[in-house]
Automatic annotation (TrEMBL):
Organism field: Ruegeria halocynthiae
Upper lineage: Bacteria, Pseudomonadati, Pseudomonadota, Alphaproteobacteria, Rhodobacterales
InterPro entries: P-loop_NTPase, Sulfotransfer_4
Protein name according to UniProt: Sulfotransferase family protein
Transmembrane portions of the chain: none
UniProt xrefs under Gene3D superfamilies: P-loop containing nucleotide triphosphate hydrolases
Amino acid sequence: MGLSVIGAGFGRTGTESLKRALEILELGPCYHMYEVLPHAERVAVWRAAASGETPNWDDVFSEYNATVDWPGAYFWRELSAHFPKAKIILSVRDADSWYESMDNTILPILRNSDDPKSIGVKLIADGVFGGNIADRDHMVSVYKKNIADIQAEFGEDRLLTYELGSGWDPLCDFLGCPIPDQPYPRGNATDEFQRKVDAITDAPSG
Protein backbone atom coordinates (compact mmCIF):
# COMPACT_ATOMS: atom_id res chain seq x y z
CA MET A 1 0.00 0.00 0.00
CA GLY A 2 2.73 2.46 0.97
CA LEU A 3 2.46 5.30 3.45
CA SER A 4 0.78 8.54 2.41
CA VAL A 5 0.80 10.04 5.94
CA ILE A 6 3.61 9.85 8.49
CA GLY A 7 2.98 11.00 12.06
CA ALA A 8 6.17 12.36 13.57
CA GLY A 9 4.83 13.49 16.94
CA PHE A 10 5.75 11.85 20.22
CA GLY A 11 3.34 9.63 22.05
CA ARG A 12 0.89 11.50 24.33
CA THR A 13 0.30 14.22 21.74
CA GLY A 14 -3.10 12.92 20.70
CA THR A 15 -1.77 10.19 18.46
CA GLU A 16 -4.58 7.73 19.02
CA SER A 17 -7.16 10.41 18.26
CA LEU A 18 -5.18 11.31 15.15
CA LYS A 19 -5.16 7.64 14.13
CA ARG A 20 -8.94 7.53 14.41
CA ALA A 21 -9.27 10.82 12.54
CA LEU A 22 -7.16 9.61 9.61
CA GLU A 23 -9.25 6.47 9.40
CA ILE A 24 -12.47 8.49 9.42
CA LEU A 25 -10.99 10.48 6.53
CA GLU A 26 -10.41 7.14 4.75
CA LEU A 27 -6.65 7.59 4.94
CA GLY A 28 -6.17 4.43 6.94
CA PRO A 29 -5.57 1.82 8.03
CA CYS A 30 -3.28 3.73 10.37
CA TYR A 31 -0.37 2.11 12.22
CA HIS A 32 0.10 2.86 15.94
CA MET A 33 1.80 1.16 18.87
CA TYR A 34 -1.53 -0.56 19.50
CA GLU A 35 -1.07 -2.24 16.11
CA VAL A 36 2.24 -3.70 17.28
CA LEU A 37 1.68 -5.12 20.74
CA PRO A 38 -0.80 -7.92 19.98
CA HIS A 39 1.45 -9.37 17.27
CA ALA A 40 4.63 -11.19 18.26
CA GLU A 41 6.10 -10.92 14.77
CA ARG A 42 5.67 -7.13 14.76
CA VAL A 43 7.18 -6.84 18.22
CA ALA A 44 10.19 -8.80 16.96
CA VAL A 45 10.64 -6.45 14.00
CA TRP A 46 10.63 -3.35 16.20
CA ARG A 47 12.87 -4.91 18.82
CA ALA A 48 15.38 -5.55 16.05
CA ALA A 49 14.93 -2.01 14.72
CA ALA A 50 15.52 -0.60 18.21
CA SER A 51 18.80 -2.52 18.25
CA GLY A 52 19.94 -0.99 14.96
CA GLU A 53 18.62 -3.35 12.28
CA THR A 54 16.91 -1.56 9.39
CA PRO A 55 13.47 -3.02 8.72
CA ASN A 56 12.01 -3.54 5.28
CA TRP A 57 9.71 -0.52 5.46
CA ASP A 58 7.53 -1.71 2.60
CA ASP A 59 6.90 -4.97 4.44
CA VAL A 60 6.31 -3.31 7.80
CA PHE A 61 3.63 -1.00 6.42
CA SER A 62 2.35 -3.20 3.61
CA GLU A 63 -1.20 -3.16 5.01
CA TYR A 64 -1.20 0.48 6.08
CA ASN A 65 -1.66 3.88 4.48
CA ALA A 66 -0.61 5.95 7.51
CA THR A 67 1.38 5.70 10.73
CA VAL A 68 1.32 7.74 13.94
CA ASP A 69 2.82 7.36 17.41
CA TRP A 70 5.88 5.38 18.37
CA PRO A 71 7.53 3.25 17.12
CA GLY A 72 7.09 4.79 13.64
CA ALA A 73 7.55 8.35 14.92
CA TYR A 74 11.06 7.50 16.09
CA PHE A 75 12.02 6.75 12.49
CA TRP A 76 10.50 9.85 10.88
CA ARG A 77 13.71 10.64 9.00
CA GLU A 78 13.97 7.17 7.50
CA LEU A 79 10.27 6.92 6.70
CA SER A 80 10.03 10.37 5.12
CA ALA A 81 12.96 9.47 2.85
CA HIS A 82 11.58 6.05 1.98
CA PHE A 83 8.10 7.40 1.27
CA PRO A 84 8.96 10.76 -0.32
CA LYS A 85 5.40 11.59 -1.33
CA ALA A 86 3.99 11.06 2.16
CA LYS A 87 2.68 14.04 4.10
CA ILE A 88 4.18 14.61 7.55
CA ILE A 89 1.96 15.43 10.52
CA LEU A 90 3.73 16.64 13.65
CA SER A 91 1.27 16.37 16.52
CA VAL A 92 2.17 18.66 19.43
CA ARG A 93 0.88 20.00 22.73
CA ASP A 94 2.18 22.29 25.43
CA ALA A 95 5.42 20.80 26.76
CA ASP A 96 4.36 20.87 30.40
CA SER A 97 1.05 19.21 29.56
CA TRP A 98 2.88 16.61 27.47
CA TYR A 99 5.25 15.73 30.30
CA GLU A 100 2.43 15.47 32.82
CA SER A 101 0.60 13.10 30.50
CA MET A 102 3.75 11.02 29.99
CA ASP A 103 4.36 10.93 33.73
CA ASN A 104 0.84 9.63 34.34
CA THR A 105 0.93 6.94 31.66
CA ILE A 106 4.02 5.81 29.77
CA LEU A 107 6.82 6.71 32.18
CA PRO A 108 5.70 4.41 35.01
CA ILE A 109 5.75 1.51 32.56
CA LEU A 110 9.24 2.37 31.35
CA ARG A 111 10.58 2.92 34.84
CA ASN A 112 9.17 -0.35 36.13
CA SER A 113 10.11 -2.50 33.14
CA ASP A 114 12.29 -5.52 33.83
CA ASP A 115 12.98 -6.09 30.12
CA PRO A 116 15.86 -3.90 28.90
CA LYS A 117 15.26 -5.04 25.30
CA SER A 118 11.57 -4.14 25.16
CA ILE A 119 10.45 -1.65 22.53
CA GLY A 120 9.55 0.83 25.23
CA VAL A 121 12.87 0.70 27.04
CA LYS A 122 15.17 0.25 24.05
CA LEU A 123 13.44 2.60 21.62
CA ILE A 124 11.75 5.20 23.80
CA ALA A 125 13.58 5.37 27.13
CA ASP A 126 17.03 4.76 25.64
CA GLY A 127 16.61 5.77 22.00
CA VAL A 128 14.50 8.89 22.36
CA PHE A 129 15.55 10.08 25.81
CA GLY A 130 19.09 8.75 26.04
CA GLY A 131 18.29 6.57 29.02
CA ASN A 132 17.42 9.57 31.18
CA ILE A 133 13.73 9.40 32.02
CA ALA A 134 14.14 10.60 35.59
CA ASP A 135 14.97 14.19 34.61
CA ARG A 136 11.89 16.19 33.67
CA ASP A 137 13.88 19.10 32.20
CA HIS A 138 15.88 16.74 30.02
CA MET A 139 12.76 15.07 28.68
CA VAL A 140 11.07 18.37 27.91
CA SER A 141 14.23 19.54 26.14
CA VAL A 142 14.24 16.39 23.98
CA TYR A 143 10.54 16.88 23.22
CA LYS A 144 11.10 20.47 22.10
CA LYS A 145 14.18 19.58 20.06
CA ASN A 146 12.27 16.90 18.18
CA ILE A 147 9.66 19.47 17.21
CA ALA A 148 12.32 21.96 16.10
CA ASP A 149 14.23 19.34 14.10
CA ILE A 150 11.11 18.25 12.20
CA GLN A 151 9.99 21.80 11.51
CA ALA A 152 13.46 22.63 10.18
CA GLU A 153 13.43 19.60 7.88
CA PHE A 154 10.20 20.12 5.94
CA GLY A 155 8.36 22.96 4.28
CA GLU A 156 4.69 23.81 4.74
CA ASP A 157 3.82 21.91 1.57
CA ARG A 158 4.79 18.63 3.25
CA LEU A 159 4.49 19.31 7.00
CA LEU A 160 1.55 20.13 9.23
CA THR A 161 2.26 21.01 12.83
CA TYR A 162 -0.99 19.90 14.41
CA GLU A 163 -1.80 21.29 17.84
CA LEU A 164 -3.75 18.96 20.11
CA GLY A 165 -7.37 20.07 20.21
CA SER A 166 -7.36 21.86 16.84
CA GLY A 167 -10.16 19.74 15.41
CA TRP A 168 -10.82 18.92 11.80
CA ASP A 169 -10.11 22.21 10.01
CA PRO A 170 -6.29 22.31 9.82
CA LEU A 171 -6.04 18.57 9.24
CA CYS A 172 -8.60 18.46 6.43
CA ASP A 173 -7.20 21.59 4.82
CA PHE A 174 -3.70 20.10 4.80
CA LEU A 175 -4.81 16.72 3.49
CA GLY A 176 -7.35 18.08 0.99
CA CYS A 177 -10.25 16.23 2.59
CA PRO A 178 -13.82 17.38 3.25
CA ILE A 179 -14.64 17.95 6.92
CA PRO A 180 -16.58 14.95 8.25
CA ASP A 181 -20.06 15.35 9.66
CA GLN A 182 -18.99 14.12 13.09
CA PRO A 183 -16.87 15.41 15.96
CA TYR A 184 -13.11 15.01 15.86
CA PRO A 185 -12.37 11.81 17.80
CA ARG A 186 -11.04 11.90 21.33
CA GLY A 187 -9.36 8.92 22.92
CA ASN A 188 -6.57 7.50 25.05
CA ALA A 189 -7.04 9.84 27.98
CA THR A 190 -5.14 8.80 31.10
CA ASP A 191 -7.91 6.62 32.52
CA GLU A 192 -8.48 4.92 29.18
CA PHE A 193 -4.74 4.38 28.77
CA GLN A 194 -4.57 2.67 32.15
CA ARG A 195 -7.27 0.21 31.12
CA LYS A 196 -5.45 -0.63 27.92
CA VAL A 197 -2.03 -1.19 29.46
CA ASP A 198 -3.38 -4.13 31.43
CA ALA A 199 -2.80 -6.17 28.26
CA ILE A 200 0.59 -4.68 27.39
CA THR A 201 3.46 -7.13 27.63
CA ASP A 202 6.25 -5.46 25.67
CA ALA A 203 5.94 -1.69 25.35
CA PRO A 204 3.68 1.28 26.03
CA SER A 205 1.59 3.25 23.60
CA GLY A 206 0.86 6.93 23.22
